[in-house]
Design goal:
The protein has 147 residues and is α+β, with helices and mostly antiparallel strands. It contains three helices and ten strands.
Length: 147
């Protein structure tokens, strides 16, 4: 049967901080996922290991400061986000240089009702793109791959 991966790759005119992206997303119903009582985030440091960390939900400001630290601009960083009203979410992955950001629907992924094996990428685009337009969004590519 195989597995499927879906993601949306956003390109920005200028580097975007994690904090600026999350602030924009908050205006349209998204927030950092703290459903497990902690913030889950990743920093792909100098050792090229995708290390995931958890921090208490009360330390969100510290987590954002760490992700946006000048020393981490050379590395990929990620944080999990959710749309509480819709009950879905995923990982926001910021590439080195911060002009490219990927969203990977991993939390209660929305599927196309008439074709449930496929991700409802149109729903995610409608929920994400308007927030990013105000932050210098230049374009996006949405794709789903079976492997």
């Amino acid at each position: 049967m195989g597995s499927r991966d879906a993601d949306i790759d956003f390109t920005f005119a200028d580097p975007i901080t994690v904090r600026a992206a999350l602030d924009a997303l908050a205006r349209v119903g998204w927030s950092i996922d703290v459903s497990a009582g902690s913030v889950s985030y990743m920093i792909n440091g100098v050792d090229d290991m995708y290390e995931w960390y958890n921090s208490s939900s009360g330390n969100t400001g510290d987590v954002l400061a760490r992700l946006d630290a000048p020393g981490n601009l050379l590395y990929s960083v990620a944080v999990d986000v959710v749309h509480l009203e819709a009950g879905t979410g995923g990982m926001l992955l910021f590439m080195p240089g911060r002009t490219e950001v990927s969203f990977v629907p991993t939390i209660d992924r929305r599927c196309i009702p008439a074709a449930p094996e496929f991700t409802d990428l149109a729903w995610y685009l409608n929920a994400l793109v308007p927030a990013f337009v105000e932050t210098g969004l230049e374009g996006y590519e949405a794709k789903e791959t079976k492997y």
